[in-house]
Specification:
The protein has 163 residues and is α/β, with parallel strands linked by helices. Strands 2-1-3-4-5 form a five-stranded parallel beta sheet, with helices on both faces.
Length: 163
């Protein structure tokens, strides 16, 4: 039984980082469903299927979001807050993939619901290894919710916790 392609959306305003990760995705065997955008607002358009991203056969909803932290107009934290407020993105794995390794950034990412925080590798070989590891764990072992389940989960009432 073959596993379906793992779709990744990489959000980063640094053109060099985008090109490096695109090359790494090809070497890691993930080129078919690896998409990139260069800003938080553009990521929102993609995730909502607006404008140039309306064709879901060309721009499928991602299973994984790789977010840069420091971007103009909308940083990664702001984008993550928005993502976590969208019912149709409930099961989307969100990973900060950034140059920062500041402990406060890691804590903030966790508070906002990030699934992981990864400091960008410094070599192409490490980038390829990272993507292969990502594909192995999130694509082969982790159970991703199907698109049919996401709306149902969003409709479930949240339990009330009493002290």
């Amino acid at each position: 039984m073959s596993t379906p392609a793992l779709c990744i959306l990489y959000v980063d305003d640094d053109e060099n980082d985008v090109v490096l990760l695109q090359f790494a995705s090809e070497a890691a065997g993930m080129k078919d469903c690896f998409r990139t955008v260069t800003s938080g607002p553009q990521a929102m358009e993609y995730l909502q299927g607006y404008g140039p991203f309306a064709d879901r056969s060309r721009f499928p909803l991602p299973d994984i979001l790789l977010l840069d932290l420091r971007m103009p107009r909308m940083n990664g934290f702001e984008l993550l807050q928005w993502v976590r407020s969208q019912p149709h993105l409930l099961g989307t794995v969100t990973i900060f993939f950034t140059a920062s390794a500041h402990p406060d950034d890691v804590v903030r990412a966790c508070e906002l619901g990030a699934n992981a925080f990864v400091q960008k590798p410094s070599t192409q070989a490490e980038l390829i290894r990272f993507l292969r590891s990502l594909k192995a764990f999130w694509g082969e072992f982790h159970e991703l919710p199907s698109t049919r389940v996401r709306p149902v989960l969003a409709e479930l009432p949240k339990p009330e916790l009493t002290p």
